[in-house]
Amino acid sequence: MNYFIRGVAVVATVGAMSLLAFSLPSGGEARGDGGGHDLMPRQTNTNWQQECGSCHLAYPPSLLPKASWRRVMADLDAHFGENASLEPATQADIQRFLEIHAADSGNSRMGDRVMRRAAPAAAPLRITETRWFVREHHEVSRATWSRKSIGSAANCAACHRQAERGVFEEDTVKIPR
C-alpha cells in the first residue's frame, strides 16, 4: 500500500512539474553571456523576427517606449520610405509583442536605461533619436556613420557583430572600415 501511495505521489508531482513547464512562455528572454548592463534582452516572437528581420535587424523592443512602437506600427504603409504593410493579425501580434517588451514596460534593465534618459512623454520614431542612443554613440563621427560599410546609425549589426543575438556589449563592437 505504501508503494501505491508513493507511486501516486510521484506521478502527481511529475504531472504538476510537466504542466508548469509547458505553461511557461516559449522562447523567453535570452541575454548575452556576460550579464552586464550593456546586454540587450532578446525576446522571441516568430512574426517579429520574420517580418521585421526580413528587411533589417529586428530591433529589440526595449529600445523604444510603447508610444513609439504604436507610432511605428500605425504607419507601416510608409515605413521609413518603404511599404511594410502586414496582414492585420500579424500586425496586431507584432505590436502586442513590442508593447509588452517596450522600454517602459518595466521588464528589462535595458528598457530602464533607455527610459531614464527619455524626455517625459517622448515617443521618438527612431531608436537613433533617443537620448540613450545619442549618449551611447556620441563618440562616433558622422563620417563613420556614412561609411559605405555602415550606411547609417540604424545599421546596428554593422558594428555590433552579435546584435542579432541581442548582444550589444562594447567589447563586441568592431567598426568596419
TrEMBL record:
The record's annotation in InterPro entries points to: Dihaem_cytochrome-c
Per the UniProt record, one Pfam family is DHC
| Domain of life per record | Bacteria
What protein am I looking at?
Answer: Diheme cytochrome c
